[in-house]
Design brief:
6-stranded mixed β-sheet, Metallo-beta-lactamase, Chain A, 14 strands, single chain, alpha/beta
Length: 255
C-alpha cells in the first residue's frame, strides 16, 4: 500500500515522502533541503529512487544536487533548464508511473510559470500541488498573471472531491485568518480555524486537505460565492469570477 508522510523542512515546508510497504525504494516531492531527507532514509533503511519537482524555487529544489550525488534517483519535473538535475522533463498531459501509481501532469502556472502538479487517480486520488493550492489559500503570483492562476485553480477544482491535496507549506492558519475576512459568514471557515489551531497546538500538520474541504473553506476557490464577492467588493472589482480572484489575491498580498 502507498503511504504519504511529511518530512518537515525549513520553517514551514513539507517534503512529501511516498513509500510502498513492499519496497525500500521511495519517492520525495520538492526536496528543498537534503539533510532531513537523508536523515530519514538512513534511519529507516530506505533508498531514494524518484524525485518529483513542482517548480523552480530553491525551497523546493535546494536538496536536489546532494540527493542526486548520493542516490542517483530519477528526477521528474518541469521542462525548465534552470532547474539542474531533471532527467525526465514533463508537461501538461504527460503520464508517469511512480511507486506503482500512474501520475498525470497538470500545468498550473501562476505562482511561477513552470509550475506543475502531479495527480494520481485511485482510492483516494492524490494531488501533489507544490505552491499552487494551499489549504484555505493559494500561491503568491511571482511570475504569472491572476488570470493564469485562476485558470490553474479552476483546473484543480475539477478533480474529484475526495482528492487528497498535499501542499508544500504549512500556511493554513494564516490563510484561514484571511478566509475569515474574505468569507465572513461561512461557518465552515470558523470550524476549520478551530481544527487548525488544535492541530498546531499538538504540532500536527494540517495537511493533507481534501478538494471537498477546500471548496468549502478556500476563498480562492469560492470566488463565485455571494458572501466572498461582497467582502471583496470593498477591495476591488468583483465583476466576474476572474476579477474577484484578482481582487482577493491582491488583498491577501497586503493582508
Ligand atoms: Zn514557491
Ligand atoms: Fe515554496
Amino acid at each position: 500500500m502507498l503511504s504519504v508522510t511529511p518530512i518537515p523542512a525549513f520553517s514551514d515546508n513539507y517534503i512529501w515522502l511516498l513509500r510502498q510497504d513492499t519496497t525500500p525504494d521511495v519517492c520525495v516531492v520538492d526536496p528543498g533541503d537534503a539533510a532531513p531527507v537523508i536523515e530519514l532514509l538512513e534511519r529507516e533503511s530506505l533508498s531514494l529512487s524518484t524525485v518529483m519537482i513542482t517548480h523552480h524555487h530553491p525551497d523546493h529544489t535546494g536538496g536536489l544536487a546532494e540527493l542526486i550525488k548520493r542516490y542517483s534517483p530519477r528526477v521528474i519535473g518541469p521542462d525548465n533548464e534552470a532547474i539542474g538535475g531533471i532527467d525526465t522533463p514533463v508537461t501538461e498531459g504527460d503520464e508517469i508511473r511512480v511507486m506503482g501509481r500512474l501520475f498525470e501532469v497538470i500545468a498550473v502556472p501562476g505562482h511561477t510559470l513552470d509550475h506543475i502538479a502531479f495527480f494520481t487517480p485511485g482510492i483516494p486520488p492524490l494531488l501533489f500541488g507544490g505552491d499552487a493550492l494551499f489549504s484555505a489559500g493559494c500561491g503568491r503570483l511571482f511570475e504569472g498573471s491572476p488570470e493564469q492562476m485562476h485558470g490553474s485553480l479552476q483546473k484543480l477544482a475539477a478533480l474529484p472531491d475526495d482528492t487528497l491535496i498535499f501542499a508544500a507549506h504549512e500556511y493554513t492558519e494564516a490563510n484561514l485568518r484571511f478566509a475569515l475576512a474574505a468569507d465572513p459568514h461561512n461557518p465552515d471557515v470558523v470550524q476549520a480555524m478551530q481544527e487548525c489551531q488544535r492541530a498546531r497546538e499538538l504540532e500536527r500538520p494540517t495537511l493533507p486537505t481534501s478538494m471537498a474541504r477546500e471548496k468549502r473553506i478556500n476563498p480562492f476557490l469560492r470566488v463565485a460565492d455571494a458572501g466572498v464577492r461582497q467582502a471583496g467588493s470593498v477591495h476591488g472589482s468583483v465583476d466576474s469570477d476572474e476579477a474577484t480572484f484578482t481582487t482577493l489575491r491582491a488583498w491577501k498580498d497586503n493582508f
